[in-house]
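> example.struct
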């Protein structure tokens, strides 16, 4: 499968936090969600992909190219959305359009005005008077108006109301009708990912814990509930994570068929949500 992002043995050290030998491939033509707890390294990874911060070592390729020689070519093909204000506060969207449009070969004014209308944004109001949600929408308009091949978003739905979040998911689905497009975005809203993501990358303390298709997560992982007395040193091995509550246990397994063979009707084997998978991988006590 063709890759749009390839990270190999990437290292970045901050005081008290580090990313060590991070390896990650993102497939072309799919929506990949990037999840992990607060402070797990999502923004740091995204900023390295965008060349906003430099890794200490390792290889990083976007569309098979490295930033060193090809940064301009790469940036032409990326739509980047993030919540920090990247604009001059006093400027309006109309001002920004005049500045940004000439920078991109594939800028499309019709797309720009369509999104302005769709997202109900004012053209002439200074960005400094925008609400948090309006800023995120403005960032989206500017990112989508140059027909990017790869859309990278750092928590795009943060600060957005549920109605607009739903519209945004629809917009993403429309964009993905073009099978050459790829989307990589971080979020804490796992229910959004269950609706639109093809792959989920999970990061914990700077380590990639898994990069699975949503089908693998839904079919291979299961939630098991039963009586605590069923768990001993041997049976414990069959589970990936277990939590106990009074006389009962709740556990995650990647071997639901084997669990059914061992325990039969003594346990309940259920579908597991992405939120529960993250909860277990983040370490339950
Ligand atoms: N410029 C920096 N200098 C020092 N430490 C930093 C810097 N940028 C990030 N960090 C640290 O790196 C860690 C990871 O931060 P990062 O923003 O990547 O997390 P995140 O997964 O995006 O979190 P959130 O979900 O809360 O946005 C944190 O401990 C943060 O304090």
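> example.seq
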């Amino acid at each position: 499968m063709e890759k749009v992002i390839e990270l190999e043995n990437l290292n970045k050290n901050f005081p008290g936090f580090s990313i060590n030998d991070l390896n990650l491939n993102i497939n072309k033509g799919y929506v990949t969600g990037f999840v992990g707890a607060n402070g797990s390294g999502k923004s740091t990874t995204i900023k390295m992909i965008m060349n906003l911060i430099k890794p200490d070592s390792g290889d990083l390729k976007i569309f098979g190219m490295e930033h060193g020689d090809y940064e301009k070519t790469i940036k032409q093909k990326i739509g980047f959305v993030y919540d920090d204000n990247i604009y001059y506060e006093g400027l309006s969207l109309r001002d920004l359009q005049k500045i940004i449009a000439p920078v991109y070969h594939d800028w499309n004014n019709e797309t720009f005005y369509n999104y302005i209308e769709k997202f109900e944004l004012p053209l002439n109001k200074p960005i400094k008077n925008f609400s948090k949600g309006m800023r995120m929408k403005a960032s989206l308009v500017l990112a989508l108006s140059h027909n990017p091949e790869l859309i990278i978003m750092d928590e795009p739905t943060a600060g957005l109301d549920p109605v607009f979040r739903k519209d945004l998911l629809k917009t993403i689905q429309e964009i993905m009708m073009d099978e050459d497009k790829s989307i990589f975005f971080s979020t804490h809203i796992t229910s959004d990912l269950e609706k639109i993501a093809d792959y989920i990358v999970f990061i914990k303390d700077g380590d990639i814990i898994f990069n699975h298709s949503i089908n693998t997560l839904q079919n291979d992982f299961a939630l098991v509930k039963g009586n605590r007395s069923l768990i001993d040193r041997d049976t414990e091995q069959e589970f990936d994570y277990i939590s106990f509550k009074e006389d009962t246990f709740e556990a995650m397994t990647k071997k639901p068929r084997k669990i059914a063979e061992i325990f039969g009707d003594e346990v309940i084997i259920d579908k597991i949500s992405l939120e529960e998978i993250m909860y277990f991988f983040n370490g339950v006590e």
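> remarks
The chain has a mean pLDDT of 92.
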